[in-house]
Amino acid sequence: MSTAPGRSQASSHRSPQGEGTPVNAPASADDDALVQAYLGHVRVEKRLAERTVALYTLDLDKLAALAREAGVALTAVQNTHIRRWVAQMHGGGRSARGIALILSGWRGFYVWLGRQGLIDHNPVQDVRAPKAGKPLPKALGVDDAVRLASHHDSADAPALEARDACITELLYGCGLRIGELVGLDVAASGVARGWIDTQDGSAHVLGKGSKRRSVPVGRQALAALAAWLVQRAAWAGDDPALFIGSRGQRLTPQHIRVRLRRRSQQAGLATPVHPHMLRHSFASHVLQSSGDLRAVQELLGHASISTTQVYTRLDFQHLAQVYDAAHPRAQARAGQAPDPQPPAPGQPSTP
Description:
Layout: H1 7-11, H2 31-45, H3 50-70, H4 79-91, H5 96-115, H6 142-150, H7 158-174, H8 178-182, E1 195-197, E2 202-206, E3 212-216, H9 219-232, H10 253-266, H11 275-290, H12 293-300, H13 305-308, H14 310-326, H15 330-333
Antiparallel strand pairs: 1-2, 2-3
């Protein structure tokens, strides 16, 4: 098996604790090259989204910095190093979810190093993040979601208003991911990642893992799309993207996040809205109305039903709120004293 440069030298210097930490040994000069090669792999071969690659970059930069502080090359990192760094992050206030995401990035990197024959074991393999309760996804109430989708900003240029209204309708009406929305083209083609068929009212998108799926597009979303296409003609250049800016270039996810946040504030919503919140709202509202978890799974493009089941918790939370607001015995359920009952006929009232 081949080894990374400097690995044999590092392995010959063990710390007194037997943790395999080189004494006064700088990290391998090839560490940066290995990280860049891996990022190129996930970008080109695995076709991960640029935002995901950017997050992986941050995680691996942190790993490289920790390895440098410990005086160990990335290919010589041991399980004990990883466990110590996890404890440091947890003690420093990093959330369990944040640590789990970092470990996932590190684990993938070491799996790749193993496939390249550069390590003989994965130091992250058996390391788990501290346990934490899974937060419920943040979703809008039905009234707020409809309010946002129906909002009209007369202060904006007609093209901007039509575009942002169409974006909102598709995110909420179809449950699209931000990457799926950005990848939509005006028309179907052999290279298009996604498009909308206005004839049969369906959106064809490329989701996670390069999996394609079709999602129904509602009447309101189709009307918003038609209005945007009329305005889009004034901006159109050579870019086939459905959603473009005034210069004719495809919108970035960050641009859409900023515009949606602004729209939610102008619509008077108490919570700033981000694209994934509308996807959560779509799933929650469909489940509340239909109770069909399998259908929601298909619409969202989840590979596993367990991923979709989080919305059953959100649905129960909604039902519990309705109960608390409407049922005369709800206060007793919440641990409060129930409202006093009127005295029976002929009985004196209690002061």
